[in-house]
Structures are given as C-alpha cells and as structure tokens.
UniProtKB/TrEMBL annotation:
Gene: gpsA
Chain sites annotated for binding sn-glycerol 3-phosphate: K108, G136, K191, D244, S254, R255, N256
Any one biological process term the GO annotation gives: glycerol-3-phosphate biosynthetic process
Role according to the record: Catalyzes the reduction of the glycolytic intermediate dihydroxyacetone phosphate (DHAP) to sn-glycerol 3-phosphate (G3P), the key precursor for phospholipid synthesis.
Name of the protein described by the UniProt record: Glycerol-3-phosphate dehydrogenase [NAD(P)+]
Length: 340
C-alpha cells in the first residue's frame, strides 16, 4: 500500500504545533520538525507539547522529528513556523532540498539586516520553489482549541493556494485565498508592534475609547507604510490586516500584547521578554520599522513613540503628551474617489 505523502511543518513552537494538529485532524500525515531531539522525543512519548502548547493533545498523525533533511525529502508542501530570527539560518543549509517544493511561511516578522519578509527570504534561498504566506487572526491556542477561526493563504500561485486550502480547511478553520502575498505578509508583521502598545494601554487601565483610537490609528499608520512600499491598501481591510490587528491588540493571549502589558506594569524590556519565554516578533520589528519609516519619510507617530519609550529613554507620559498635542490630521488617507 502506498503511504500518504506527508506535509512538513517546520517549528516546534505553539503555532507549528497548532497547524500540525489541524493538518493531522484532516487526515494528513505530518512531519513536524524541531531542532531539539529531546523535545521531539518528549512529544512522541507524551503526545503533548507542554513547553509551547500546554494542555493540547497531539493528534497521532503527527510525527515529531529532529531530522530536517528527511522531513524535507518526503514532503512536497512545507509550512514554515520558525521565529524570523531563525528562518534563514535553519533553511540555508538545506536549500538544495527546497527546489520545486511548495513553501508557505507562517512567520510574522522582518529580517533585521535586510528588511526582508520571510517569504522573500524563502524565495532567495530557494528560487525554484513555489512560495506562499499564511497569515490572519490565528492565536495558536485558540486554533488548537478549535475556536472558529479564519486565515488567509496568499500567493501568486493559485494551485498552491488551493493545495493549502485543501490541506487546512476544516470544521473550525476556514482558509481564504489572496493573490496579494506582500500585503498579507506585511500586515502580519506590522501588527505586532501595535499589540505591544495595546498591552501597555491595558496595563495602565486606559479606557475603551483609547483602545479603539489606538487600533484605528495603527491601521492608518501601517497602511500608509505599506502603500509606500507598493502594497495594496485594500488588503489591510481583510483578515490579515485589520483582522489580525484586532485580535492581537485585544487579546491577553498574544505574546506581543503580554510584553506590552509587562512594560505597562513597570518591567524593563529585557525583563518582559524574559518573563514571556516565547517569541514576540514585535520587539525586533519595532526597531527595523522605525529606521525604515524614517528612511522612507513615512509618518508613523505611534512607532516613533513606542521606540522613544523602549529605546530612547523617553517616558510614556512625555510620548503621550507629544502624540495628543500633535497637529491634527485627516482621518482616512485612502478614500477611493474615481469610479466609486
Ligand atoms: N503563536 C501564535 O499564536 C502564532 C505565531 N505565529 C508566528 O509563528 C512564528 C513562530 O512562532 P511560535 O510558534 O508562536 O513560537 P514559539 O515561541 O511558540 O516557539 C518558537 C519555536 O521556535 C524554535 N526555535 C527557536 N530558534 C530556533 C532555531 N534557531 N532553529 C529552529 N527552531 C528554533 C523553538 O525551539 C520553538 O520550538 C512567529 O513568527 C509568530 O509570529 C503566527 C501566527 C500565530
Ligand atoms: O499572530 C498572532 C495572532 O494572529 C499571534 O500573536 P503573538 O505572536 O503576539 O502571540
């Protein structure tokens, strides 16, 4: 009997595990790669991933492995759920095994040195591969707990989108398609920064008006930046834009929000990151985004303000005063006129 071709999920963290479970529940054979052989062994033995996704049973269709080469050799579809700081170094050495595969990044970060998004790094490492991005309001724990959830698969490659929809679409997980890979990926990376601010606002007991202002002005700011880079602003009205922004800025389950909350409680950035013990991509993204916005002369007062508090020794009170006293601006930058 021929064995079902497996799907590879790269990353032993919370999101990789949540995705692996969905795939296995849909009847797919899943090879979940993690760098730590002990973690793989523990997951095989216990049927759980207690360090990153406590309390969630792993489906028996998941085979945890620390053999990256073997996983890549067998799979045609590969979902990458590694932290942005690790993706290039983990995949460059196995570039030869990636040609013609379908590679889908689920990582929501930006490379510090190059300002590249993760799918752009995949493209660079594996020019012959077929590339996509999966992004949306997808808190790993809720995905794993089968909360009704939607996401976006974005690629210029329609067949890839269909393949991912077939593999992941299920009773509790809807997968929408988009051809705007760049916009979808950028939305996922940028929203993390604003989730840090929202966490701070929550810790400081700020009001609901404030939270709403923050999210809406964040959307304006991230869209302005994306448009400067050539993205389609309409994508930011979708799940991977405003959808992900809302969930990450409102949920204590978000790690970026948690970092912000800890900062609002008076912890230093180092203490907040250490207490979390998981990936919070927004911290790195903030650094590179601030520099890039200045270079491109894009007005991003929220990014500049958070950067001033975290890295330039300003107090939050000083920054809030500056933001609120800033010259009044127009509400929506991109109101289509002709043809509407
Ligand atoms: N957790 C979530 O709710 C969601 C996360 N994401 C994205 O998924 C990516 C991964 O995040 P999580 O799974 O949440 O992270 P996590 O913090 O739960 O786990 C990180 C995993 O990466 C591994 N890792 C770290 N450095 C590595 C390296 N050099 N080589 C190989 N593995 C390494 C760790 O051992 C761990 O297994 C992030 O970019 C995040 O933005 C996307 C959607 C939802
Ligand atoms: O991207 C996410 C939800 O869509 C997860 O956000 P955090 O990385 O802040 O937990």
């Amino acid at each position: 009997m021929t064995q079902l071709q497996p799907i590879a999920v790269l990353g032993g963290g919370s999101f990789g595990t949540a995705l692996a479970n969905l795939l296995a529940e849909n009847g797919q054979r899943v090879l979940q790669w993690m760098r730590d052989p002990e973690q793989a062994e523990q997951m095989r033995q216990s049927g759980e991933n207690p360090r990153y996704l406590k309390g969630v049973k792993l489906h028996p269709g998941i085979e945890p492995t620390s053999d990256l080469g073997a996983a890549l050799q067998q799979a045609e579809l590969v979902l990458v759920a590694l932290p942005s700081s690790a993706l290039r170094d983990a995949l460059q050495p196995v570039a030869g095994l990636l040609a013609s595969k379908m590679l889908v990044s689920t990582t929501k970060g930006i490379e510090a040195r190059t300002f590249k998004l993760m799918s752009q790094i995949l493209e660079e490492i594996a020019p012959d591969a077929r590339i996509g991005v999966l992004s949306g309001p997808n808190l790993a724990k809720e995905v794993a707990d089968h909360a009704l959830t939607a996401t976006v698969i974005a690629s210029e490659d329609e067949e890839l989108c269909l393949r991912v929809q077939q593999a992941l679409h299920g009773r509790t997980f809807r997968v929408y398609a988009s051809a705007d890979r760049f916009g979808v990926e950028l939305g996922g990376a940028l929203k993390n920064v604003y989730a840090i601010m929202s966490g701070m606002a929550a810790a400081l007991g700020m009001g609901e008006n404030t939270k709403s202002m923050l999210i809406t002005r964040a959307l304006a700011e991230m869209t302005r930046f994306a448009v400067k880079l050539g993205a389609n602003p309409m994508t930011f009205l979708g799940l991977a834009g405003v959808g992900d922004l809302i969930v990450t800025c409102s949920s204590p389950k978000s790690r970026n929000y948690q970092v912000g909350y800890a900062l609002g409680q008076g912890l230093s950035l180092d203490e907040a990151v250490q207490r979390l013990g998981e990936v919070a991509e927004g911290v790195n993204t903030l650094k590179v985004l601030k520099a890039r916005a200045e270079e491109l002369e894009v007005y991003m007062p929220l990014v500049a303000g958070l950067h001033a508090v975290l890295f330039e020794g300003r107090t939050l009170a000083q920054v809030i005063e500056l933001l609120m006293r800033g010259e009044p601006k127009t509400d929506v930058d991109f109101i289509p006129t002709a043809g509407f």
